[in-house]
TrEMBL record, chain A:
<dbReference type="InterPro" id="IPR045865">
    <property type="entry name" value="ACT-like_dom_sf"/>
</dbReference>
<protein>
    <submittedName>
        <fullName>Acetolactate synthase</fullName>
    </submittedName>
</protein>
<dbReference type="Pfam" id="PF13710">
    <property type="entry name" value="ACT_5"/>
</dbReference>
UniProtKB/TrEMBL annotation, chain B:
<dbReference type="InterPro" id="IPR012846">
    <property type="entry name" value="Acetolactate_synth_lsu"/>
</dbReference>
<dbReference type="Pfam" id="PF02775">
    <property type="entry name" value="TPP_enzyme_C"/>
</dbReference>
<feature type="domain" description="Thiamine pyrophosphate enzyme central">
    <location>
        <begin position="189"/>
        <end position="323"/>
    </location>
</feature>
<dbReference type="InterPro" id="IPR012001">
    <property type="entry name" value="Thiamin_PyroP_enz_TPP-bd_dom"/>
</dbReference>
<keyword id="KW-0028">Amino-acid biosynthesis</keyword>
<keyword id="KW-0460">Magnesium</keyword>
<dbReference type="Pfam" id="PF02776">
    <property type="entry name" value="TPP_enzyme_N"/>
</dbReference>
<keyword id="KW-0479">Metal-binding</keyword>
<dbReference type="InterPro" id="IPR039368">
    <property type="entry name" value="AHAS_TPP"/>
</dbReference>
Amino acid sequence: MTSSADHKTHTLSCRMRPEPAALERLCQVARIRGFRIEEMQVRTDADGLAIDMVLSGQRSIDTLRRQIEKLHTVCSLRGPEQALTGVRQSA
Amino acid sequence: MNAAQHILDALQRHQIDTVFGYPGGCIMPLYDALVAEDVGVEHVLCRHEQACALAADGYARASGRTGVCMATSGPGATNLITGVANAHRDSIPMLVITGQVPSGLIGTDAFQETDVLGMTLGIVKHSYLVTEAPEIPAILEEALQLAGSGRPGPVWIDIPKDILLTDIGEPKAPAPTTATPLPDPTAEIDEALAMLREANMPLLYSGGGVSLAHAESAFRRFAKASRLPNVVTLKGIGNPGYDNADQMGMLGLHGSKAANMAVDTCDLLLVVGARLDDRATGAVATFAPNAKVIHIDTDAAELGKLRATDLAIRGELRDILDSMADALIRQPLTIENWRQQCATWRKTQGFQTAINEDPHAPISGPEFMRQLTDIAPRDAIVACDVGQHQMWVAQYCRFDHPRNHLSSGGLGTMGFGLPAAIGAQFAFPDRPVINVTGDGSFMMNAQELATIRRHKLPIKLIIMDNQCLGMVRQQQELFYENRESQIDLDDNPDFLALARAFDIPTLAIQRTDQVRRGIQTILAYDGPMLLHVRIDRSENVWPIVKPGASNRDMLDESQRPTSTSAKNKESAA
Ligand SMILES: Cc1ncc(C[n+]2csc(CCOP(=O)(O)OP(=O)(O)O)c2C)c(N)n1
C-alpha cells in the first residue's frame, strides 16, 4: 500500500452464520480487496457471529461492502460510519 | 443409505448425468457407491484432476448446466485447484466434491490431509467442510442452488471419509430453496431509455454475463430493436449472433481498432453483463473518456467497481433487456449518422486477413482461422487454449452463440482447451467439437488424449505449432527489446506419433494451399483426428495495446520494431 495519507478508516458491523471458515472468509475479502483490518471484535451469540471491524484503505468502502455482502455466510452488514478521514489512526 | 449414496441421488435428482473425477483413498466410499447398477450418473475418468475440473468447466460453459468434478483429498484436491480457479474467474457453475481424511484425523497431519477449505476460499463462490453426515442432503441442495444462481460460480464440498460412510436413512424430498428476488428496476429502466434517447453516439458493450444469465435471446432482441453499434469482450463473443449488422467485434488488448475507436468516441456506453476487466478497458482512466456509463449486471459488487457509473441497474438481465427492447420497438432510436460512422470503421479498421496468393507461403494464423470458421458448421463448438492462437480464434472466427466459443478469459489457463473440449463433447455428443491449441498449451494436458480414446470422442484437435511460447515471445519482442527468454519449443515431441499412440489419426500441413483441404479432412472424419499446423515462429497477434496504455494507442504491424516477417502481412490495422 502507498502513502497512508489517502487512507480512510471505516467501521463495519457484520453478522455471520457460525460456520467454521466464516472469519477467514471475511478477513480474506477485506485483505484481497485492498483493506487492512485495524481492529476486530468477535462475539458468538444465539444468532451466530457478531463482528465489529475497523478497516482502512484507499478504495471504495461501498464496493467492499457489496463484496462482503456476497459471502454466503454473511447475514447482515451495517456501516460504514466513517471514523476518520485523511490520516490513519494507527500505524 | 449412506451419505455417498445420497450424493449420487441428489445429482440424479438435479438431472446431472455426467461427472468428471479421479478416485483415491478418502473418496473411495463415493466411488463404491458409483458401482451400483441403477446409478444414472456417468463418471468420466480424466487422467489428471486438473483436467477433471476443466472438463466440468467445458461441460458447463457449453451447456449452461452445472458441471461436476470430484477427487480425493490431498493431491487430488490440490490438482483440482487450477480448474476451479478457472471456473471461478469466469463465473462458471460448478460443483466440486472432494474426500477428506476422517473427521478425527483432521488437523493431525494425516496422510493426504490438506486444508482444502482454507486453501480454496478465494476461488469458490462458497464451500463446505461437512461435519455432520445428516446435513449432506441439505448441503448438496444448497450448493447446487448457489452454483447455478445469481452470478454463477464453483461451490466446493469437502467431505471426510467417515461421513461419506455414515448411514443417514432414506432420501426425503428436500425443502425447496428459494433465491431472494432482485429489486425491481423499472424506474432505472426508464432512466436508461431516456439517456439512450438523449445520446448521439451510444454504444452497446456486452460480456460473458449475457449467456451466464441465460439472456441470449433477450440480448439479441434488444440489439436488433435498438440497432446499437456493439462491441463484445472475449467472453461476449457470439452474443450478437452471425446476423447482427451492427457488430464491431472484440474490444480491448487484442480487439479490433474499430471496436476500440467506437468506445473511445461514444458518448454513452451501455455495459451489459461485463465487468470492465483490464484486458478489455486498457488504462481505465482514459477508457471511454467521453461517455456516460450505464452498467447492467446481476452482481451488485461489479457496479461501479472500476469505473464510476452514471446509472447502475442491478437485476435479471433477461427482464431488463426485454422491457428495454419493447420500448425501443415502440419508439426507435435515431442514430443513423453514428451507425454509418461505425459501419465505416468496421470496414476500414476491422479484422481483415490478406489472402496470400503464393500457395507455398507459410500458413498465417489469422488466415487459418478465417478458413476454419468458413468451413466449420455453424453449430461447431471451438475450445481454445491460451496464447496467440486463442486471440486469432477470437479475432477471426465467427460465432453464432457465446456458448460455442470456449475460452479461458479471466484466468487464462494454458491446458484449458483439450479438457474443455472433452466436457463440451459430453454435453453435446452429436455436435462438432474442435480444440484449437498451441504447441505449448497442448502439452499442459496432453494426457487427456487417453480420455478421448477411451470414450471414442470425435474431437478435432488443431495444434498451431510455432515451435515456441508465441504469446510470450511476442511480448518479449515488443516490450523487452526482443530478449527471448525460455520460450523455445523447437524440441517439441513428434505430435503425430504422440496422437497415434492414442489411436488418433493425424494430418500435417504447412503451406497455405493445404489449409482448406486439411480443415475439410479432419471435419469430415468420423472420429477424433489431429491436424498439425506448422506456422511461422515470428508471427504476432495484431493489433496490441502496450501494458498500461490506453486502448486508443493500439500498435499494429506497421509499428513492429524488428520487422522480421513481412511475408505474411495481414492488415489488422
Ligand atoms: C498455466 C499457464 N502458464 C503460463 C501462462 C503464461 N502464458 C500465456 S500465453 C503463453 C504461451 C502459450 O504458448 P502456446 O500454447 O504455444 O500458444 P501460442 O501463443 O504460441 O499460440 C504462456 C506461457 C499461462 N497463461 N498459463
